[in-house]
Design a protein that fits this description.
5-stranded antiparallel sheet; 21% helix; 5 strands; alpha+beta
Length: 157
């Protein structure tokens, strides 16, 4: 059985899939869930997307894909993992799929979500952006996600 039972799907639920195998295609950009062998695990409340070990990994036409990483792996530690997207992909244990509508509705209902504390630096490749990201990270005052590829998907949707 590859998906949830109809009676398990609730308005604020997301589908969680267990990663059985990571195909490790590092010669290609790890772009989405097609690089994993997945098995449906359970339905979970949408609030799971705010957990510290869950990261946005892709944006499709009608849904967001998030990945949960292995416990104890700090993928946002730029000293160990300079590029967030590859480290999340390498350490994924679950893929979480949520419709755009479910995510938007959930975030709209959260107080204090005006975006004033978010800064995005966008630039072209080979310009020193990883160095700048690492310097900002070293201040200890910011959460830095170097090369968060899924934001390109959000821009395109």
């Amino acid at each position: 059985y590859f998906g949830p039972r109809k009676q398990d799907v609730q308005p604020n639920s997301v589908m969680c899939y267990q990663v059985l195998a990571n195909l490790k295609l590092h010669f290609a950009w790890p772009n989405g869930t097609d690089k994993f062998l997945l098995k449906f695990k359970k339905m979970e409340d949408i609030s799971v997307i705010e957990q510290d070990d869950v990261f946005l990994s892709g944006v499709r036409e009608k849904e967001f894909h998030f990945m949960r990483t292995k416990p104890g792996v700090r993928v946002t530690d730029m000293d160990q993992h300079p590029l967030i997207y590859f480290s999340v992909f390498d350490h994924a244990v679950e893929v979480i799929v949520a419709s755009h509508e479910t995510v938007y509705r959930y975030l709209q209902d959260k107080p204090g979500r005006d975006g004033r504390n978010i800064t995005l630096l966008h630039n072209i490749g080979r310009c020193g952006s990883t160095l700048v990201a690492h310097m900002v990270y070293k201040t200890g005052q910011c959460k830095v996600l170097s090369e968060p590829f899924p934001f390109v998907g959000i821009y395109c949707v």
